[in-house]
Amino acid sequence: MRLISVGIVVIYMCVLAVGQDRPAWVSNLDAVIAKQEPSWSVSEKKVNDVSGYFTELLKFKSGSLGIEIHIENFSSAKEAKEAFDGQKIAFTDILQLDATKSTLEGLGDENYMFTEKGKLRKASLFLLQNNVVVKVFASSADIAMRFTKYVVDLIPHE
Predict the structure, then answer these.
(1) In DSSP terms, which residues pair with 44 in a beta bridge?
(2) Tens digit of each residue's pLDDT (9 = 90 or more) over 57-116
């Protein structure tokens, strides 16, 4: 079932990939994080900006800690909501067995976070705001929430 859910999300994302230029606010994210989190550095960056759809993956490191931020900018809030709902189903199927699901009040239009049970307590945070879907995978819930807030603060309010 998990494989089918992930497959549906991947197919849906491919269908939506009609392209969009890199949003200006995304360009500011590196500078904001560098200022707020000077001990963290970019370890990887991947950009996909074809006309009508934009995604960016940013990975940051600080010693043994790490975080991945996936940003998807859709051409409409409706497309973003449809993608978010599909991803919500897929990631819930995958993560709910080994993690506790929660929501964070006042962060984006809609969000949910999975915090791993046990010793490591890694976190996966998923957020929808306007026409943007953000996925954050971090070494801890605190790191995930902090970095997600930097992203949310930059997303234009429409």
Answers:
(1) 59
(2) 999 999 999 999 999 999 899 999 999 999 999 888 888 888 888 999 989 999 999 998
DSSP state at residue 120? S
Give the full edge-to-edge strand order of the sheet including 99-102: 41-50, 53-62, 65-73, 132-138, 123-129, 110-116, 99-102
Three-state SS at 151 = helix
**What does pTM read for this prediction?**
0.81
**Domain 2-154 part of CATH 2.40.128:** no
Cα separation, 132 vs 127, whole angstroms? 8
Beta carbons of 69 and 136 less than 8 angstroms apart: yes
Q: What is the mean pLDDT of residues 153-157?
A: 89
Average pLDDT along the chain: 85
Q: What is the pLDDT of residues 101-131, one digit of tens each?
A: 899 998 999 999 999 887 768 999 999 999 9
Per-domain boundaries in the chain: 2-154
Distance CA 13, CA 80 (A): 10
